[in-house]
Amino acid sequence: MYNFLALATPGFVFYLIMLLIFGYKLGWFPTSGIISLEASAKGGMAAVLSRFYHMLLPAISYALLTTIGTIQYLRNEVVDAKSQDYVRTARAKGVPIKKVYSKHIFRNSLLPIAAFFGFQITGLLAGSIMIETIFGYQGMGSLFVDCINQRDYSVMTALVMIYGFLTLCGSLLSDIIMSIVDPRIRID
């Protein structure tokens, strides 16, 4: 139920709901910023802990929303793999169901997920424009929005180049993950 509801909810709505519930209503997390003023003045370990505390709600919100697609995709792949011939053959040979799932179904279902896993890591490194704008967290995404508002074309160009480089790194990482998961892909 949660999976389908979260898939249907746009990112900015989900982030605003998380901020409203856990930031304003329950008061468990700070609602904006990177560090509290008291911790900034003290410095040291207090500053590190304050930064971590301010990062928790955006990180949890981003993780909850991005893992939904992966879980749904894995579920669909497992359902499709159950009806494949190699699974029926393994079941007919008398292979235990746990072994069929771990060796045949799950391993082959991971291949498409491994293909785009590098790009998800790239998105994590590049920052999310929406997350940083909504939570008031300063990073590459908020810098990009500020550059657009101020029409700072040189910084925008540099950020687009950095995003492009991170995408290339994500593609390389995705290929490396694919070669680990599926040895048939390796180049000798």
Description of the molecule:
The chain is mainly alpha-helical. Helix content is 81%, strand content 0%. The protein has helices at 2-8, 11-25, 37-42, 44-82, 85-92, 97-126, 129-135, 140-150, 153-181. Helix 8 (140-150) runs antiparallel to helix 9 (153-181). The longest helix has 39 residues, at 44-82. It starts with a helix and ends in a 7-residue tail after the last helix.
Record keyword descriptors for this entry.
single chain, 188 residues, 0% strand, mainly alpha
Give a quick precis of the structure.
By secondary structure, the chain is mainly α.
CA gyration radius, whole angstroms = 21 Å
Number of helices: 9
Average pLDDT metric:
81
Shape: globular
Uncertain residue segments: none
Q: What is the distance, rounded to the nearest whole angstrom, between the alpha carbons of the first and last residues?
A: 45 Å
Describe the sheet with the most strands.
Answer: none
| Oligomeric assembly | single chain
Roughly how much helix do the residues carry, as a percent range?
A: over 70%
Structural class, from helix and strand content? mainly alpha
Order of helices and strands: HHHHHHHHH
Q: What is the number of beta strands?
A: 0
**Percent of residues in beta strands?**
under 5%
Secondary structure layout plus pairing:
Blueprint: H1 2-8, H2 11-25, H3 37-42, H4 44-82, H5 85-92, H6 97-126, H7 129-135, H8 140-150, H9 153-181
Helix pairs in contact: 1-4, 2-4, 2-7, 4-6, 5-6, 6-9, 7-8, 8-9
